[in-house]
């Protein structure tokens, strides 16, 4: 197909692509509106060595992984539940958590997701506070030169909407709908590919040059009367 043919297809059937895309976008947005919103709160803990020494600094990179393991235990979850007075099990609280470390800046990030933004904020703030207290106690038994000070980078200010992302889902639905619409158009064009409509079609299929065409008759020729017997 030449570029002109593609343009003719878009002009004749482009509305199909647009309609399918709009229907898909509205459906995706509607489904998103029906979903229960989930919020995410985050807090970061920073681990700093008592002195800037290469060996101690590299040790912290390994310690960060142990911090992640420690924070993700049932024991820590129970402490959070007891302090914040949550009505949930440790398994339920752990299912809301995502804990990760970043050795490049010596931080540990705690994320919590919940349908209640206040609960998500309380989980991460309480866990951060408890872990700082625990590390302070541990430091009391260590030489001051070997201590690793854990602090909260910044207290939790708010929880952000995690899902559903209505606008993003609607956009994704529009794009997917446009693709489906384009496939429908291609199928329709393929089904009608053997139908001859124009002189150009004749020349393309037969390979002969069209010298003339017979116009479709719209009724009796001018000047003649239709005879009724």
Q: What can you see in these coordinates?
A:
The protein is α+β, with helices and mostly antiparallel strands. It folds into 2 domains: 3-34 and 166-204, no CATH class; 38-163, EIF_2_alpha (Alpha-Beta Plaits, 2-Layer Sandwich), CATH 3.30.70.1130. It is 55% helix and 15% strand. The chain has helices at 3-34, 54-71, 74-84, 90-95, 117-140, 166-191, 199-206, and strands spanning 38-49, 97-102, 107-114, 148-152, 160-163. Strands 1, 2, 3, 4 and 5 form a 5-stranded antiparallel sheet that branches. β2 and β3 form a beta hairpin. α1 packs antiparallel against α6 (166-191) and α3 packs across α5. The mean pLDDT is 82.
So, the CATH homologous superfamily of the largest domain? EIF_2_alpha
Overall tally of structural domains: 2
Silhouette: elongated
How much β-strand is present in the residues? 15-25%
Write down how many β-strands occur, each being a DSSP E stretch of 2 or more residues: 5
Count of helical regions: 7
Q: Structural class of the secondary elements?
A: alpha+beta
For the record, what CATH class of the largest domain applies? Alpha Beta
- Major sheet attributes: 5 strands, antiparallel
Instruction: Let me know the average pLDDT.
Output: 82
Span between N and C termini?
A: 52 Å
How are helices and strands ordered from N to C? HEHHHEEHEEHH
Rg, Å, rounded: 35 Å
Spans of at least 5 consecutive residues whose pLDDT stays below 50 are: none
Query: Could you name the CATH topology of the largest domain?
Result: Alpha-Beta Plaits
């Amino acid at each position: 197909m030449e570029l002109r043919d593609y343009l003719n297809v878009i002009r004749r059937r482009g509305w199909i692509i647009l309609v399918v895309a709009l229907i898909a976008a509205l459906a995706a947005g509607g489904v998103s509106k029906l979903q229960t919103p989930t919020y995410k709160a985050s807090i970061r803990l920073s681990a700093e060595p008592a002195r800037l020494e290469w060996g101690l600094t590299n040790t912290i990179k390994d310690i960060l992984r142990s911090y992640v393991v420690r924070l993700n235990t049932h024991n820590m979850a129970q402490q959070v539940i007891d302090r914040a007075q949550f009505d949930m099990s440790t398994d339920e609280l752990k299912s809301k958590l995502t804990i990760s470390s970043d050795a490049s800046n010596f931080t540990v990030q705690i994320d919590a997701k919940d349908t209640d933004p206040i609960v998500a904020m309380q989980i991460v703030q309480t866990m951060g506070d408890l872990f700082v207290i625990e590390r302070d106690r541990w430091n009391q038994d260590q030489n001051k030169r070997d201590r690793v000070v854990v602090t909260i980078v910044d207290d939790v200010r708010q929880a952000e909407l995690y899902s559903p992302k209505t606008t993003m889902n609607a956009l994704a639905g529009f794009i997917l709908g446009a693709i489906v619409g384009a496939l429908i158009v291609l199928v329709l064009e393929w089904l009608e590919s053997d139908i001859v409509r124009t002189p150009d079609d004749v020349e393309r299929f037969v390979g002969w040059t069209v010298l003339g065409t017979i116009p479709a008759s719209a009724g009796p020729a001018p000047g003649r009367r239709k005879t009724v017997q």
